[in-house]
What does this fold into?
Amino acid sequence: MGIVFEGISKIFPDGTAALHGLDLEFETGEFIVLLGPSGSGKTTACRVLAGLEDPTGGRILVDGRDVTQLPPRLRGIGMVFQNYALYSHKTVYENIAYPLRVRKVGRDEIERSVKAMADLLQIGRYLHRKPGQLSGGQAQRVAVARALVWQPDICLMDEPLSNLDALLRLHMRTELKRLHRELRKTFVFVTHDQEEAMTLATRVAVLRDGKLVQFDTPQTVYRKPATRFVAEFMGRPAMNTFDGTASAGVFTAAGFACPAPGFSDGPMTLGIRPEQIEIVDGSAPDAIAFEVDVVELVEPDILIFARRGKNAIIVRAGGDRHYDHGALLHLRFPPAALHGFDASTGQRLP
Ligand code: ADP
Ligand code: MG
It folds into this structure.
């Protein structure tokens, strides 16, 4: 049960293939995040789920029922888009009440529902205002309230926080999480921001070129990325990757070698996250010397950009040590922290 994308394809009339046989299945009540770079098909997937776009192949099932041919208004989906448009001539109250009026809900119940939703989103004080008298964050909350006030089973949000400044994004993110907990509805949230995906999702669906590349909990997507693409997309700064060859438990790239037990012999891509690299003494076994290039302070951590020949690496370090430009930095890659990817397909190696 729940929501199923079954082999959903979408080829637009101009020949652009936006989705290629997308299979995705999740439970009701989840907070699903569709994550991917621009153009990966996130909006198209949303619009197909909402019924705003007909798929050219496949079916959408909601609780076992095929809704592929069902018009949008019968799908029980509330929507918030990046460029949410509030009715500028209506008050905040009337904006939120609108979906209820359309559904011929009684006056008292409208009042009760609008007030409850406004309280939940902390916009109760602005109900008499017009949208033009709100800040960006307040207007965004009104859009969310309007999408949810009629208690849709599914709340679909396509990059709803993109137009907000950084601090407000963080704040709204927390609010959405609380809202999800309190309403117990299914949330489908689209973003290209991996941090938003990590913090919000019960499960993250990573899309690339209209295909699903991984669908799992944020923790698993981060710790066991299915492909090199996912590895580099999840986590900032991105995972370090090196092309080279494994042989008898040792990985050799142009310019350095390190123990890499467990990988079969042959060409491969080795990956390690910046925070998992150890800074050691030059005398330590398996220490690899890099030269410090740029140092960035991201309190309480430090990001060290270093080089060794053609290899560039980013290390996330803690503490108060000072790193000078040009100084030697001795690094160790703990074998347990290593990721391996197929040199040609980018698929994760077991
Ligand atoms: P995302 O939301 O991940 O940025 P979209 O779903 O908007 O991606 O777009 C996926 C692909 O489909 C892109 O290549 C985009 O240019 C194309 N696309 C989207 N809408 C249309 C359309 N109406 N006609 C033709 N191509 C489209
Ligand atoms: Mg989009």
